[in-house]
Amino acid sequence: xxxxxxxxxxxxxxxxxxxxxxxxxxxxxxxxxxxxxxxxxxxxxxxxxxxxxxxxxxxxxxxxxxxxxxxxxxxxxxxxxxxxxxxxxxxxxxxxxxxxxxxxxxxxxxxxxxxxxxxxxxxxxxxxxxxxxxxxxxxxxxxxxxxxxxxxxxxxxxxxxxxxxxxxxxxxxxxxxxxxxxxxxxxxxxxxxxxxxxxxxxxxxxxxxxxxxxxxxxxxxxxxxxxxxxxxxxxxxxxxxxxxxxxxxxxxxxxxxxxxxxxxxxxxxxxxxxxxxxxxxxxxxxxxxxxxxxxxxxxxxxxxxxxxxxxxxxxxxxxxxxxxxxxxxxxxxxxxxxxxxxxxxxxx
Length: 348
Hints:
The chain has two domains: 3-221 and 329-345, Rossmann fold (3-Layer(aba) Sandwich); 228-323, Response regulator (Rossmann fold, 3-Layer(aba) Sandwich), CATH 3.40.50.2300. 34% of the residues lie in helices and 20% in strands. The chain is built from ten helices and 14 strands. It has helices at 9-27, 53-64, 93-96, 98-106, 119-129, 197-208, 250-259, 276-288, 300-311, 331-345, and strands at 40-45, 70-74, 85-86, 113-115, 135-139, 151-157, 185-189, 217-224, 228-229, 239-245, 261-268, 295-298, 320-322, 325-329. Helix 4 packs across helix 9 (300-311). The protein is globular.
């Protein structure tokens, strides 16, 4: 927390009063929550951005799609449209958001992917269109209290767990730490390689102090796949210009420093919409390092936006590669986590 954070304490207190009153009204059923006719699994966090929700959603889809007829639903953050939409082969990031489109592409359209800011209304429409569904995975709906989900997975990053964070604007929390009591399961994400038992116990102790006693805590890390080309099929050069729009790109940058010849880093805000000016900056860096045959390396969610600009002729001078990201668990944690979920939804 920065030295000047105490100056923001009055504003954090106001924010705490507002969010606590809202939660109190929902907890006491003075504000109404609605349960969907189709079972729902909610993935979310207490903080703003950077906890690895999309890799976790993809992990769940990959491991549950053969057992449950499922779909995913998110707000579609960053899209320029409103209302309920289904992602399709001709969808763009501007229409449905970059992360829903990433999920749709990754699973080759085999998993229905929907967006809708009103999750309750969206679930009613999904249920009407696809009555055979057995499960909907919701991305970033932990604070959507109008929905009474069937199972809540709370994510918190290892480097700044909610148990050590503060309410906005002092910190990054959207609501009080006590909101964690709504969780059925907690995953500590973005853990370092070689996580020691002491480190694990320290974080787990802090997190568990805000949970119901029966709620389990699991640990995951970010794994990276082999880079693949966005458009053409050029050979990959380890001399890379890293371009990304993430809430927190520190682990990505650290990985690239170790595994590639990292020439330049261009970091943009989360869900950044790339412009022609951004393309000019990227090309200028490519020309600066022309003798090293550089490539642009980017994330899956940024790739669709850069691909669109490349197709328009703005970035076709330099190869663009995608670095896949996934959530990884130790085998024991993975099997136990999935068994909790199966135990819940196989009963329904």
